[in-house]
Every structure is written in structure tokens, then in C-alpha cells.
Amino acid sequence: MVYLLDHGYSLLTFERWQEIDRVNKPIFITFDDGYKDQLKALSIFQKLQKERINPVGTLFVNSDFIGGANRLTASDLKQLANSGMFSIRQHILI
Questions:
Q1: Which DSSP state fits 27?
Q2: Which of 68, 60, 11, 15 is nearest to 38 (CA)?
Q3: Any idea of the CA torsion for 42, 86, 37, 47, to the nearest 10 degrees?
């Protein structure tokens, strides 16, 4: 994350897609499937934010798996969304 920001990349969430042509080196950090270990990203983002870095990412979750074994719970997702650092989107399995 520090490398990306030090090299002029702009972190966006999918809700800010329309800004892609207005920022320098747009990049999207994404997390798939809603596994419990993705909560570690929140603590990493919080540490980076203390260094005046504004990390953001988009988490793609399949609603059928919320609260399942080794998966994020509804409470976890709410915590991530309320942090202001994550957007939560539907991950569609085909």
C-alpha cells in the first residue's frame, strides 16, 4: 500500500468508479469471497491511516456464505463498512 501511494497511485473503491479519469494512476484493491482472515486488512488499513495514508478497498462477498465456517459475519461486514475504508459489494458465483 505504501509503495502504491509513494508512486502516485490513487486508491479507489467501486463506488468511486466515475473518478477513474480524474485521478492519477487509479487502482482498485479488492478482496474476494468474504473469508474471516480478511479482517486483518482492517487492522493494516488502520495502521496505514495513522501514517496519513487513506487506504480503501472493496470487498466482494457472496451473501449465501455470510456467517459460514471461516467466513465474515454480518457484524464483521458492518464493522468493515463503518470503518469508511471498505465498500462491500455482491460477489456473484457463476
A1: E
A2: 60
A3: -20
pTM, entire model: 0.85
32-to-16, 24, 52, 70, 88 alpha-carbon distances in Å: 18, 25, 26, 13, 10
**Residue 4 domain flag:** no
Count of alpha carbons within 13 angstroms of residue 30, beta-carbon side: 11
Q: Count how many domains the chain has.
A: 1
Query: Helix, strand or coil for residue 7?
Result: coil
User: Which tens digits make up the pLDDT trace of 48-84?
Assistant: 887 777 899 999 999 999 999 999 999 999 999 999 9
User: What are the cell numbers at 52?
Assistant: 496519513
Q: Which residue range is the domain that position 68 belongs to?
A: 29-90
